[in-house]
Design a protein that fits this description.
This protein is α/β, with parallel strands linked by helices. It is 21% helix and 27% strand. The radius of gyration is 17 Å and the shape is globular.
């Protein structure tokens, strides 16, 4: 299989339960909830995405097979231990498959994935983060963390709380009214102590 990769880079994980951890980010091109084109945003199933996942023109972007993609990820990581690759998008589960999972595991990587949950995760992923979007059919209802961008209309956090996740996170939406989104997220967590607040610390630090 040929994988369409937008970009690959070494950074710190900025969100969720693994925030602050060194990681290689592997961003696949393409998504099933939005084309990535601004002219389509208003009619997309997900209208608030803050990521460019169109094309293969990013840093280390291009077309790869599984061995060469795993080799590039390993080259960026270097010789340090506790290897972590975070596979994201767009929607990474449109492309992530057994061949790439095996190739990355063979190079000693723990594999984390950040998905919208509309595509079932293949076996072998070590850390699954699902970020559900309102109005979509979520099939991946188990994993390590559920990260709900907040506020979203027509989505019931109480229903999500019954799903099988190790942690439940609320993350303020990166939108025009960021302060209101942050205040709403804090209020939600204060009223619902099972949930934790997740912030996009990489943006505050100026990291990719």
């Amino acid at each position: 299989m040929s994988y369409a990769v937008k970009e690959i880079f070494l950074t710190l994980q900025g969100e969720g339960m693994q925030a602050g951890r060194r990681a290689v980010f592997l961003r696949f091109a393409g998504c099933n909830l939005w084309s990535g084109r601004e002219q389509d945003r208003a009619t997309a199933q997900c209208t608030f995405c803050d990521t460019d996942f169109v094309g293969t023109d990013g840093v280390n972007g291009g077309r790869y097979d599984a061995p060469s993609l795993a080799a590039r990820v390993a080259e960026l990581w270097g010789s340090a231990e506790r290897r972590l690759v975070v596979i994201t998008g767009g929607e990474p589960l449109l492309q992530l498959d057994a061949a790439l999972i095996e190739a990355l595991h063979d190079r000693g990587f723990e594999i984390a994935v950040e998905t919208n949950g509309t595509v079932a995760a293949p076996p072998g992923i070590d850390w699954i983060c699902v970020s559900p979007k309102s109005g979509t059919h979520i099939v991946q209802r188990s994993g390590n963390e559920l990260k709900l961008v907040w506020p979203q209309p027509a989505i019931d956090p109480a229903e999500l709380s019954s799903w099988d996740f190790g942690a439940f996170l609320i993350q303020p939406m990166d939108c025009a009214d960021r302060e209101a989104a942050l205040a709403a997220s804090i209020d939600f967590v204060m009223a619902n102590p099972r949930w934790r607040l997740s912030l996009q610390t990489h943006k505050a630090l100026g990291l990719p």
